[in-house]
Amino acid sequence: MNERNYSLGQVGDHEIKQLKVFKMVVDCGGFSAAETMLNIGRSTISSHITNLEARLNLVLCKRGRGGFSLTEEGRVIYQMTENLLESLDSFRTTVNNLNSSLTGKLRIASSDNISLDPRCYFPRLIQDFSSTAPDVFINTNVSSMAKIERMVLNDEADIGFIPYHRKLEGLEYFHLYNDQCYLYCRQDHPLTTMNEADQDIHINTFPATHAGLKPHESISTKIANMNLKAVSYFYDSRLALILSGQFIGFLPEQYAQSYVDQEQIVSIKPQNNHYTLGIAVIYKKTNQPNKARELFLDILSRIFKETRSAPY
User: Fold this and answer.
1) Is there a contact between 296 and 106 (Cβ–Cβ < 8 Å)?
2) Which of 38, 203, 223, 238 is deepest in the core (most CB within 10 A)?
3) Tens digit of pLDDT for each residue in 116-160?
4) How far is Cα 13 from Cα 84, in angstroms, rounded to an integer?
5) CATH number for the domain whose boundaries are 13-99
6) Cβ distance 277 to 252 under 8 Å?
7) Per CATH, which fold does 105-177+278-303 belong to?
8) What region holds the HTH lysR-type domain (predicted)?
9) How far is 267 from 277, CA to CA, in rounded Å?
10) Cα–Cα dist 230/210, whole Å
């Protein structure tokens, strides 16, 4: 299996079947465990793997007394197999949706200005969805996280884009990205004239604004001792309170950056006063078919190919 200038050529159903067997063997940790899942004998599995290795001109795995293990080439082929099979499933779903003449509505609820965040790819999501399903009527609105959760659970919305502090039973979560949130005050706030030691002493005496939700534990510890005197869920209203000079408050770094650049607000001891906020798409756990929602989630999965780790 060391011929130079080897070319694989066309890949057909036979190779895909062999790749599926290979993937199952890897997922099961060996030939014996894969027998039950594949419902074929060990000798047949071994034949599939041997033929696949010959077809690819690669040694994919080691098997013997030492147990089953992948070679370096085998790890690469396993990852590529996962990507290939995922793409085939996505292609099949899209074709099926196209042939089902998708109509009806897709109801999307978004919290704050998430839909305009470039990390969300919302315009591209809508572009791809509407190009594929032009007869589906799209209804979008903006609301608070808690209301969007209720809307999705009560079948009043199909998809929600939210910053999430918690995970609720009955909802599925697709993590999009993380926001780093910092504590801000107006440029001429008294805190800006203090050294860091004095800031630590006085920071919790100044009125603060917050989202008004029961936060996740990692966030709760940041605001527990603050002098909470105002509730402003939406970033725009929270920023307005901070710009009044009467309140301090947390904002996502990306949202606040232009106001920092304009020297209207400043962060207060960012090395200490920060937390991570996850942004996710939510949808209801249900067996009830919803082809418009399924297509939207399929497009979402394709755009967000890489796994993104949630903060909690």
Assistant:
1) yes
2) 238
3) 999 999 999 999 999 999 999 999 999 999 899 999 999 899 999
4) 12
5) 1.10.10.10
6) yes
7) D-Maltodextrin-Binding Protein; domain 2 (3.40.190)
8) 14-71
9) 17
10) 7
